[in-house]
Amino acid sequence: MSDIQDKPTMVQDEHVSTKPRRRGGCVGHCLKLWWVYLILLIVIVVIAVPVILLVIVPKIAQSKLDDAELSIQGIRMMNSQAQNFTMSINSTILSDGKIKATIDGFPGKMYLEDYHDHTPFAIIDFPATTADAEQVVNVTQFTQINDVAAFTAFNTFLLMNDTFRVTVEGDTFVTVHGIARRYPVTFKKIVTLPGLRLFAGTTVFNTSISLTPDERGNNFKGKTRIPNHSLVTFEIGNTTFHNYLLGNEVGTVYIDDLTLIPGDGNVFDMRATIENTPVLNTVQEKPYCEDGNVPFQLRGKNVTNHGQYLSYFADALAAGNQTIEINIGDSIEKLVGNRPTCKTT
Ligand SMILES: *[C@@H]1O[C@H](CO)[C@@H](O)[C@H](O)[C@H]1NC(C)=O
Ligand SMILES: *[C@@H]1O[C@H](CO)[C@@H](O)[C@H](O)[C@H]1NC(C)=O
Ligand SMILES: *[C@@H]1O[C@H](CO)[C@@H](O)[C@H](O)[C@H]1NC(C)=O
Ligand SMILES: *[C@@H]1O[C@H](CO)[C@@H](O)[C@H](O)[C@H]1NC(C)=O
Ligand SMILES: *[C@@H]1O[C@H](CO)[C@@H](O)[C@H](O)[C@H]1NC(C)=O
Ligand SMILES: *[C@@H]1O[C@H](CO)[C@@H](O)[C@H](O)[C@H]1NC(C)=O
Ligand SMILES: *[C@@H]1O[C@H](CO)[C@@H](O)[C@H](O)[C@H]1NC(C)=O
Ligand SMILES: *[C@@H]1O[C@H](CO)[C@@H](O)[C@H](O)[C@H]1NC(C)=O
Ligand SMILES: CC(=O)N[C@H]1CO[C@H](CO)[C@@H](O)[C@@H]1O
User: How far is Cα 194 from Cα 187, in angstroms, rounded to an integer?
Assistant: First the structure.
């Protein structure tokens, strides 16, 4: 028994006796080399603190900014002039909100992500924000058109596409609460915006035609409903369109004071000067004579707003044809009392 007890004791003794010896060795060693440890500590502090402050914090700040999401609720372009307009943007920045920080205001370049050289079509001054989970950023700003070609491309993309991508990019500074240092960061967000789909779904109704033109030379009047599939409101102005019938130009369509708003509330008076003969011939041909609907094509011709020619809208509207059916049969019936019949050839 004592043998058995002795053994563990001996083992324990060995432990007890060896540990202090090792520690003593370390203490002695450490004491002798205290200056090495001090230098190491200083080096760690001197290197680690700046590494944290200069490398890690800005990296985190940049990556938090990269993870944030920008969404646009509305864009408004008003008081459109040849060289400038007033732009309003309602937007929201969503982030995880875990860092308390402020982001300085900055000039944000806006450009088409899918257009060759990324020339900005507008530069918007974004206000200072915080890094809270949800930031509402609504801006209204007088905006110079510095590059008409880029702004025309933006309007063309907006008009032609179902969706298109716009990038907002700018260099700014972030201040993380508790650190008295401003870090340079880049704000870059790509947003997908709904486009106008070339006004697909436009209808013309309440039409009337006259055989003798009025004092402005118009022989066609009606109302048009233009759906706005996008979230852009814009003041276009007095707009004219080439009017084609079966590939031939047959006249000009006018819509005055055109301002499009999002949604279905876009109903405007339209008037036109149209050659009677090709229209009257077509409406008596099959299949048009069956229901009286004649397919016209419209393509932008001219846009003037308060006396200024707006090439950036005119050229965008000229980029494509929109087919619109107009019930000429009904208009003729209103005019002469009976519908045109199908020509027998
Ligand atoms: C922004 O929101 C305000 C308030 O709802 C609204 O009056 C304004 O028309 C909106 N602007 C844009 C550009 O969507
Ligand atoms: C805006 O542009 C028009 C020409 O398109 C010019 O007459 C006007 O002076 C400009 N306004 C400002 C404030 O630059
Ligand atoms: C900002 O725009 C949003 C719509 O996106 C609106 O709900 C909010 O009221 C606007 N805020 C201000 C201060 O205009
Ligand atoms: C948008 O429209 C433009 C001009 O018609 C076109 O070049 C571009 O490829 C379209 N598509 C997208 C996704 O932007
Ligand atoms: C259509 O025209 C008639 C008569 O010209 C008018 O009473 C009616 O209000 C018009 N409808 C619309 C939607 O403008
Ligand atoms: C629009 O249609 C007319 C007549 O069919 C044609 O001459 C013209 O080239 C078309 N334009 C575009 C941009 O499609
Ligand atoms: C556009 O219309 C205005 C006013 O009618 C006219 O002065 C101008 O010459 C037209 N511009 C083009 C490019 O057709
Ligand atoms: C549109 O043209 C009419 C004349 O046809 C003019 O009285 C009106 O001021 C013009 N509107 C704009 C916004 O330029
Ligand atoms: C006809 C149509 O698509 N209208 C849309 C216009 O844009 C708004 C959003 O701004 C949609 O809610 C509408 O459905």
Answer: 22
Q: Find the 142 Cα to ligand 3 centroid distance in Å.
A: 19
Amino acid at 280: L
10 lines ligand 3 (CB under 6 A): no
Domains defined along the chain, listed by start: 66-195 (2.60.40), 198-336 (2.60.40)
As beta bridge partners, residue 53 has: none
Q: Is the peptide bond before 227 cis (omega within 30 degrees of 0)?
A: no
pLDDT in tens, 151-161: 999 999 999 99
The Cα–Cα gap between 318 and 198 comes to: 11
- For residue 151, the tally of other CB atoms under 10 A from its CB is 24
**pLDDT class of 24 with cuts at 50, 70, 90:** low
Nearest CA to ligand 5 atom 5: 206
SS3 of 153, please? Answer: helix
pTM: 0.85
Answer whether 299 contacts ligand 6 (Cβ < 6 A).
Answer: yes
* CA 165/CA 232 separation, integer angstroms: 14
Looking at the CA of 76, name the nearest ligand: 1
* CA–CA gap between residue 129 and residue 94 (Å, rounded): 12
3-state secondary structure of 227: coil
Calculate how far, in angstroms, residue 255's C-alpha sits from the geometric centre of ligand 8.
Answer: 10
Protein residue with least CA distance to atom 6, ligand 5: 206
Cα 44 from Cα 46, distance rounded (Å): 5
Pairing outcome for strands 69-78 and 232-245: parallel
Report whether residue 155 contacts ligand 4, using a CB cutoff of 6 Å: no
